[in-house]
Amino acid sequence: MELLEKIQHLFGSYGYSVLFFGLLLEFIALPFPGETTMAYAGYLSYKGQLDFGILAILAFLGTTIGMTITYFIGAKAGLPFIVRYGKWFLFKQDKLDKTQKWFAKYGNALIFIGYFIPGVRHFTGYFAGIAAVPFRKFALYAYSGALFWVVLFLGIGKVFGPQWNAVFHLAHQYAAYIVAAIGLLLIAAVLYRYRKAWGRRSIRKSSPIRQKQNAE
Fold first, then answer.
1. What's the count of helices (H) and strands (E) in the chain, helices before strands?
2. Are 157 and 41 in contact (CB under 8 A)?
């Protein structure tokens, strides 16, 4: 409740800008309860006090700008700099080790799913830069993941209204599983469309052969 009271006070004092600057600072690894703030902002939208579209745009921009900054810091400064000076930005060694381990295991996909893993999303941008992931590929994973993350947690407050807090805790607990399930559904949909397209292409290729055989 103390955290929620602080968030309420911030929105009462600063309005929309809380979401933009808060998320931007969170992704530079400064403490900010991004998911809780987005869910509460969605609830304010449900009550008609804030506009959902503006919230989504500002949250997306704050997140992606923060991620992009960390990407270039990682690319230019490298891991030794972050390990040496990271303590000044609250980079705990155990979190750095955890993110490095996850990045080695899941590769670029972690840039997308990392948003939903506590203690990891703050560092995926840095490690993407350190690993020299091409910027286009980084942007594809980071910006699409940011959009999904933002809409999910803002949507909890918008859709569930007064029950947002209970739903938020469930979503926060099972977010990684939700993302994995949605990812599998998307992959299945892409494969299904590809299979249909391949089937149509095969039919078109075989048609001239059949016509030639019939003519003979």
1. 9, 0
2. yes
